[in-house]
Amino acid sequence: MSKDKILALSVVIFIFLTLGITNPSSFLSSYNMKALLEYTMTYFVANIGLTFVIMIGSIDLSIGSMLSFFTVLFVMFLNSSGFWAYLLVLVLGALLGFANGLIFTRLKIPSFIGTFGAAGYTRVWLSSFPAENRLVLNPWLSGLLIF
Q1: Inter-CA distances, 54 with 2, 49, 64, 138, Å
Q2: Are 103 and 114 in contact (CB under 8 A)?
Q3: To 10 degrees, what angle do helices 111-127 and 63-81 make?
Q4: How far separated are the first and last CA of the chain, in Å rounded?
Q5: Contact 89/73 with Cβ under 8 angstroms?
Q6: pTM, 2 dp
Q7: Which pLDDT value is given to residue 95?
Q8: CA-to-CA distance for 10 and 129, rounded, in angstroms?
Q9: Rounded CA gap, 67 and 73, in Å?
Q10: For residues 34 and 12, what is the distance between their CA atoms, to the nearest angstrom?
Q11: What is the mean pLDDT of each run of 10 residues along the chain (147 residues)?
Q12: Where are the alpha helices (DSSP H) in the chain?
């Protein structure tokens, strides 16, 4: 491991230990640890896929806008379709990811440009939803959430 990686890891461990020692009742509480794991799980899963993209020497700039877009779609589908929202969002996400892959592999457009464009069109789709329509999950559907 390089010196830079060791230094970065040491800084993270130092901050974690400092917060844990100075405020153990709230920082190291089971509630806080559970909240940290729940909030970071989406990014963790997304970054597993992004790791493979980076390993082949490419980059995906659309990950943030795609996460936002599919989060909004998930809530909309969950309100209207119930449990099928999971399947619908997974299929749509796979299709858009497949489209990004085709742009890169078949059209030979660099991943930087192709995924930047994908980020653009997902943001446009996201902004096309009416602002006055708030996304609110129906209370009786909250039992369908897995986390």
Answers
A1: 19, 9, 16, 38
A2: yes
A3: 40
A4: 35
A5: yes
A6: 0.67
A7: 94
A8: 44
A9: 10
A10: 19
A11: 88 90 84 86 84 87 89 84 89 92 91 90 83 63 58
A12: 3-22, 24-27, 30-55, 63-81, 84-105, 111-127
Q: Which residue has the tokens 């997902």?
A: 122
Instruction: Provide the residue type at 41 as one letter.
Output: M
Determine the pLDDT at residue 139.
Answer: 64
Two tokens, residue 25: 């009742």
Q: Work out the number of other CB atoms within 10 angstroms of the CB of residue 119.
A: 20
User: Can you read off the two tokens belonging to residue 143?
Assistant: 């039992």
- Whose tokens are 């708030």? That residue is 134
Cβ proximity of 109 and 103 under 8 Å: yes
